[in-house]
Amino acid sequence: MAKHDVKTLIYSSTCATYGEPEKMPITEETQQVPINPYGKAKKMAEDIILDFSKTSDMAIMILRYFNVIGSDPNGNLGEAPRPELREQGRISGACFDAARGIIPGLKVC
After folding, report:
1. Which of 8, 16, 44, 78 is within CB 3.0–4.6 Å of 71 for a Cys-Cys bond?
2. Nearest to 87 by CA among 71, 103, 109
3. Is 65 a catalytic residue?
4. 93 lies in the same domain as 62
5. Residue pLDDT, tens place only, 13-25
6. Which part of the chain is the NAD-dependent epimerase/dehydratase domain (predicted)?
């Protein structure tokens, strides 16, 4: 990244880093105590990125998804699909739309 002068890093993480929190809702202050290998690996990667950010001028953002894919189209799993949220609803849907050329691109702020 240094070779290519990358100045921004956005890391896709997961709510699995929180494990089984003692209280809800989960906030940025909720302790991260992952309970499975997936959550532990994501937490380790977050820790490495945060350590790196202390010695770098790179802008860092960590996104922790709770349901990145969303419900199935028939509404049998997950919450009932809401077509009116297609454009802003799930980041995965927007990524797929951008990759397929349905929308011109994707901006994460």
Report:
1. 78
2. 103
3. no
4. no
5. 999 999 999 998 8
6. 1-74
